Amino acid sequence: MERKKIDFISLNIECDKHLDLVFPFLKDNSRVDIIALQEVFEEDFHRMQQETGLNGAFEAVVKLSRLTKDGYGNYGYATFTRHPILESVPIYYAGRSRVKHLPITQHGAGVSRVDTCVRRTLLVTSIDKDRDAIRVINTKFTWTPDGKPDRLQRRDIKRVLKILEKFDEFILLGDFNTPRGGEIYSQLSSHYQDCIPQDIKSTIDPTHHRRKDLELVVDGVFVTQQYKPGKVEVVTGLSDHVAIVGELFF
């Protein structure tokens, strides 16, 4: 039997800083099965839906000051698909998930302030691709200032892995804020298949990132045994992270 294919994109868009680059990219790739974006403002999510015609799910994790204009916006993750969405739910693993209103902070407020108030979430979205239910999980994992694991990352990876155990199959995409080969990334890759080829040396964009000398794979695509990766590559010049573009077979 011929195997079925899923096309995907994962990209941290760095808030609203590169929308002039991100929007044309999304429109050019609107036929992709799955697009997972991180660091998205809700206002921009709705505009992306309108301009691409895609179905979408959004989860806000904090109310954050915008970079390119005055004011604050709900900031979080967005998952898009050209297929019907069967269900989309957030599963919290850290932060103030029980607080009615989103916590408010601003860029430059300090790592400890931002990181402790954010609602750390797995956005779990099930899509109907030609009568196959595909579970997509989108996240931006807990950040550390130097790429080295700390108490919060070690606590949160245990929580994430415990949540993931509940699902029999899934595609996990996102910005994991931890380098491949390190302690946290290795925990994920020991449980699930890492789809980033070894010849990809970095997912930090060489042009738009504030650190031009970084060469780290910190974004990832992890899958359960049902899925087998095909061609996976990166696209530069869109944000401070590269876009991961690829295909999976099942």
Structural account:
This protein has 250 residues and is an alpha+beta fold. It has one domain (5-249): Endonuclease/exonuclease/phosphatase (Deoxyribonuclease I, Chain A), CATH 3.60.10.10. It is 20% helix and 38% strand. It is built from 5 helices and 13 strands. The strands form 2 sheets. A 7-stranded mixed beta sheet has the order 6-3-4-2-1-13-12. A hairpin with a 7-residue loop joins β12 (228-235) and β13 (243-249). α4 (151-164) packs parallel to α5. The longest helix has 14 residues, at 151-164. It is globular and about 55 Å long. The mean pLDDT is 92.
Characteristics:
six-stranded mixed sheet; 5 helices; seven-stranded mixed sheet; alpha+beta; single chain; Deoxyribonuclease I, Chain A; globular; 250 residues
Structural class: alpha+beta
Q: What fraction, in percent, of the residue positions are helical?
A: 10-25%
Count helical runs: 5
Principal-axis shape: globular
- The CATH fourth-level homologous superfamily: Endonuclease/exonuclease/phosphatase
CATH class: Alpha Beta
Unreliable stretches covering 5 or more consecutive residues: none
Sheet-strand content, in percent, reads 35-45%
- Biggest beta-sheet profile: 7 strands, mixed
CATH topology: Deoxyribonuclease I, Chain A
Number of strands: 13
CATH architecture: 4-Layer Sandwich
> Radius of gyration, Cα only, in angstroms?
17 Å
